[in-house]
Amino acid sequence: MANIINFSDAASIGLHSMILIAKSDKPINAIQLSKALGNSKHHIGKVLQRLVKDGFLSSFRGPTGGFSLEIDPKTITLYDIYVSIEGKSKVKLCPDDNHICPVDKCIKKKVVKRLSDEFVSYMESQKLVDYL
Questions:
Q1: N or C: where does the chain have the smaller number of CB atoms within 10 Å of the terminal CB?
Q2: Residues 6 or more apart from 91 whose CB is under 8 A from it?
Q3: What percent of the chain has pLDDT over 70?
């Protein structure tokens, strides 16, 4: 059975890693996250570097290194994390000259866009702190 909403591996790694890092009182490295999440340390490192670049995390090298939270978890939404990994949510609507269904009942506009808007709204309402 198909999932209606499905996170990419990268989005799932980003969201779950942020929760684990926010729960920790010391930096967590990619090896520790790999064991906890069951993903490659290389894939985790690549995803988390996007979050470092966007200022959500800081990273430290060395034996006591790892990733730590840079921003208060009360101010970070799940959508902020999602956008850092995947980019802003976009819905491609039907071209104006290619309407199959009546314009006032367009499947993409009435269903897909509405569900996408609700997804974004829900993700924006969820703070990282809510998952700690």
A1: N
A2: 108, 112, 113, 116
A3: 88
